[in-house]
Design goal:
Elements: H1 4-21, H2 26-66, H3 73-76, H4 86-93, H5 95-102, H6 112-123, H7 126-133, H8 139-154, H9 157-166, H10 169-187, H11 208-226, H12 228-237, H13 249-264, H14 270-284, H15 289-306, H16 320-326
Helix pairs in contact: 1-2, 1-11, 2-6, 2-8, 2-10, 2-11, 8-10, 9-10, 11-13, 12-13, 13-14, 13-15, 14-15
């Protein structure tokens, strides 16, 4: 489920940590990369699992209202529709959902006050009111309410703070993983969604494409680290008017990773590699980095081609019309 762009970003972070540590080994960098990717499965499971906390808190608030000493009319005539949402009922009973959420221990999430406040906040939204006023409880209506609740919960600072206290790394990844989970929930359809439906995780060993993408990024970490010295020499050759020691470390690492992709990844077109590292420079480096990296990589590609070091298979060949269409 994780995109190669996202995995490249994680590989970059692992290589940066390796260089910053000084005494770290290539194997340690590879293990750190694997550990961080696997922890994304935990973050994904937490984001999905918290829906059950919120719904349970909502059900408890209804029961508490019924037993008030002086209950209001609303307390005595509550709507159970949201807490009995049909889409969420299937989700909570799903084998993969239960396996994912039960694989990790979340005692630090057991805070009824937070979940109750979140549920009551969601009850006050126009989307919740529209849901109650919709007479037909179709799959689409129930699914939309579940998606609205998920989005609402993910945007609550009280929940985010619990996550960030658990792991600072998750602060950078939270929104991306939430988007993946949202897309997964949205893709479920009435015909195929039941207790046995397979729910993909962030890094899914059951999915061949996920395994291929993960292995690509992990090997990219290893090959980039092993090739840093010769790759730096290649970079220095094309620094006209630039002092290597004054170039941002992140830019050097991005160039190293791109060179590694050019020479070791036969199935990835050169143009795709260049575009990927330009995009990563926008996320992790300076405003001027994209121009610098683009210029240096153009020169390096020419030299690597001349030296016969770039060998692409059919998947990695540049096809103008097709590549332009896929950008």
């Amino acid at each position: 489920m994780l995109s190669r762009h996202f995995l490249r970003a994680k590989a970059l972070q692992a290589i940066y940590s390796y260089q910053s540590a000084g005494s770290a080994t290539t194997m340690e960098a590879s293990k750190r990369f694997s550990y961080n990717i696997n922890r994304l499965n935990e973050l994904g499971a937490i984001q999905l699992g918290v829906l059950q906390y919120v719904i349970e808190a909502g059900r408890q608030s209804i029961e508490d209202g019924l037993h008030k000493h002086l209950p209001s009319y609303e307390d005595l005539h509550p709507s159970y529709r949201a807490v009995d949402n049909k889409f969420l009922t299937i989700l909570f009973a799903n084998f993969d959902y239960r396996k994912q959420t039960e694989s990790y221990k979340f005692p630090w999430l057991e805070n009824d006050d937070i979940w109750r406040k979140i549920y009551m906040g969601f009850k006050a939204t126009p989307k919740y009111k529209d849901y109650l006023e919709t007479e037909e409880a179709t799959f689409e209506v129930e699914q939309r309410m579940a998606l609205d609740l998920f989005k609402y919960v993910m945007n609550q600072e009280s929940f985010r703070e619990l996550i960030y206290e658990r792991s600072l790394l998750w602060e950078d990844d939270f929104d991306q993983i939430a988007q993946y989970n949202y897309a997964m929930l949205k893709a479920l359809n009435e015909e195929d969604f039941n207790e046995a439906t397979m729910l993909p995780v962030m890094n899914d060993e059951r999915d061949e494409r996920d395994c291929e993408a993960y292995n690509f990024a992990r090997q990219l970490v290893i090959d980039t680290i092993n090739g840093i010295e010769p790759n730096n020499d290649l970079i220095k050759k094309h620094l006209k008017g630039w002092d290597f020691d004054r170039i941002a470390q992140m830019d050097i690492l991005l160039l190293n990773m791109a060179i590694t992709e050019f020479t070791t990844c036969a199935s990835i077109p050169e143009r795709v590699t260049v575009n990927e590292y330009i995009e990563l420079s926008k996320e992790f480096s300076t405003d001027k980095s994209k121009i610098f990296i683009n210029g240096i990589l153009d020169k390096i590609i020419i030299e690597l081609r001349s030296a016969g070091r770039i060998n692409k298979d059919a998947r990695g060949m540049y096809i103008p019309d097709l590549d332009d269409e896929n950008e």
